[in-house]
Amino acid sequence: MRIRKVHLHNFKVYRGHNDIDCTIDSSAQKPLVIIGGPNGAGKTSFLESLKLCLFGSQNKLLLSPFGGNYQRYLKEVHNKSAKLEHEPFSITLEYSDDRIRDIDIFSIRRSWKLNKDDRYDEELELLANGSLRDDIDKTDFQLEINEHFPFGVSELLLFDSEEFNKIPDFLENGFISSLNKFMGIDIYNQLNKDLANVKKIQISQDDKQIG
Predict the structure, then answer these.
(1) Which DSSP state fits 64?
(2) Residue burial 113-148, b: 16+ Cβ < 10 Å; e: rest
(3) Contact 1/24 with Cβ under 8 angstroms?
(4) pTM > 0.90: yes or no
(5) Residue 207 above 70 pLDDT?
């Protein structure tokens, strides 16, 4: 899976439409994307946009400075000029998935619009090659994202080097369990427990004293 492009619209310092190309040559041996720039250029905001696009209100780490209040957080990240003009804001993450076909381009688009009650209405869309996906029910869109981008693993991969001292926090926020699930280790652990139980039952049946 490779992130190809990120489209930011009225998110924080990214006023209007902003397209960021993260495409890497398929022959590259180290598919790592590094974002650089001076202070205030929007590096941290860029990483934050990816996490918000992927997990929305589920990302408790983003909401912690706002007391867990998602609406307060959204008002803070909505570009101030755009908010005054009552313009919506959105984030789109475009990626390719080699597990199907390299030509398939998938997109996750999350958008927000202020309603009459001064609260944000959110819309989450999953697209394949530019068309809304109809193979998944809309109510399962977030589940599909979580399956492809486990929260704990994503937190570590989408990493701000200026916050290197917070690495231990990842271990306490679902990283280990997400990594186990991502690599199938959780299935192996469950199998190991099941086999151990079967072994105990067999031993107790064969030897009444042990049973």
Answers:
(1) G
(2) ebeeeeebeeeeebebeeeebeeeeeeebbebbbee
(3) no
(4) no
(5) yes
